[in-house]
Amino acid sequence: MADLEVIQGGAVLIEGERIVDVGPYARIRASAPDAEEVEVDGVLFPGFVDAHTHAVFGKPRLDDHARRARGMDYKAIAAEGGGILSSVQDTRARSEGALVEVTGRRLRHLLAQGTTTVEVKSGYGLETATELRQLAAIGALAKGPPALVATFLGAHEVPLEYRGRRSDYVRLLIEEMLPAVARQGIARFCDVFCEPGVFTPEESRAVLEAARGHGLDLKIHADELDGSGGAELAAALGAVSADHLACASAQGIAALAASETVAVLLPGTMLFLGRADRAPARALIDAGGAVALATDFNPGSSPGVSLPLMATLGVSQLRMAPAEVVNAITVNGAAAILEAKSRGQLAPGFRADVVLAAVRDWRELVYWYGGSLVRQVWVAGAACHPVGGTINFLA
Ligand SMILES: [Zn+2]
Q1: What's residue 147's pLDDT?
Q2: 238 compared with 73, residue with greater pLDDT
Q3: How is residue 199 annotated by DSSP?
Q4: Among 35, 127, 358, 237, which residue's Cα sits nearest to residue 25?
Q5: Torsion 228-229-233-239 (CA) sign
Q6: CB contact at 8 A, 45 and 355
Q7: Residue 234 and residue 205: Cα distance in Å, rounded?
Q8: What is the pLDDT of residue 102?
């Protein structure tokens, strides 16, 4: 993960949507004398890949933020009508068109920070129609920019109307929602919030095995706020990614490191929630695991849009090397959504997703924080100046 190739005075040759060649300017120029030239001043990175977001939502959860500052925990906030279920109530009341409109504007913020591909989950419906509507909204925006990949997260929480009969909700997920999602072909992955008080490892396994039966690849919210056995489950099931992991056990870390599963770590969530737990990035990497960093962009626990900020936190909070965090928001972010062969690298054959940062030394990308160093973004070969009047967070 610490292997990063830096070319001084380099050039990227793009044809259509693809990168054709990368190397020293003189050689690239000589190989393509007729190519149109765009001169840039700074460092070019592969477009960043955000492998974990919940970007389809309406209102921000401003009261939850203040409640946490007063010392209220997750359960106390939910008891006052906040938490995930307040976003569920809000999302159920919005049409597909309204969800597309608000989500599209917010995704421009991620693009302005250099993110060219975003994984987006459903999970604020918790009923078939709204889950499908969220996935349809993701589908409507999938071409981008930024490009999206959709994950079905009906198992994000047990909705109020199923409290006291949770097995009926698991049955609804398996017998109604998953077949409908598969029939419409509107999700690539299925995810489950495996956490004490949410879904048990046994319930998570049942949902994920059913999802695999429908041809979906697997992700797990694992060991976020408490040890859940989620890391072990992700390794055992061969999930594409295990996400969060701040409270993963030593056995879970060892199992993940020995597996093909990518650990997607979300340091912005721990920062925003004010928690001291740290995901075991160093232990995972030192044991041979693959680590990606993502924003977890969502209205409750991480309303953050910047992958470069997550990379800064990767160094300062998770003790990752600068080269490791750059790989974690590019190559490994792509691996966490099964796009490692097409995105996340400036290399021949890859999609021409390119970010220009106004820095001299590439390490400055993860050093200056709190502002944006991104000056230009190309998505699939097309320049898209992302900063403009259409960007806002209005609900
Ligand atoms: Zn999440």
Answers
A1: 97
A2: 238
A3: B
A4: 35
A5: positive
A6: yes
A7: 9
A8: 96
Question: 360 C-alpha vs ligand 1 centroid, how far in Å?
Answer: 34
Token readout for 255 is 């199992």
Q: pLDDT-based confidence at 81, cuts 50/70/90?
A: confident
**Smallest Cα–Cα separation from 98: which of 64, 58, 132?**
58
| Overall average pLDDT of the 260-284 stretch | 96
Q: How many helices (H) and strands (E) does the chain have?
A: 16, 14
Residue 296 CA to ligand 1 centre (angstroms): 5
Q: What is the mean pLDDT of residues 81-101?
A: 96
Per-residue confidence at 129, pLDDT binned at 50, 70, 90? Answer: very high
CA triplet 196, 243, 392: central angle to 5 degrees?
Answer: 105
**pTM > 0.90: yes or no:** yes
Cα of 121 to ligand 1 centre, how many Å? Answer: 8
Sign of CA dihedral 23, 24, 28, 30: negative
Q: What is the mean pLDDT of residues 254-266?
A: 97
Output the pLDDT for position 385.
Answer: 65
Dist. CA 253 → ligand 1 center (Å): 19
Q: Ligand 1 center to residue 52 CA distance, Å?
A: 6
Q: Residue 47 carries which DSSP code?
A: P
Q: How many CB atoms lie within 10 A of CB 129?
A: 11
Cα(232)–Cα(194) distance, integer angstroms: 11
Ligand 1 centroid – CA 271 distance (Å): 14
CA of 83 to the centre of ligand 1 (A): 13
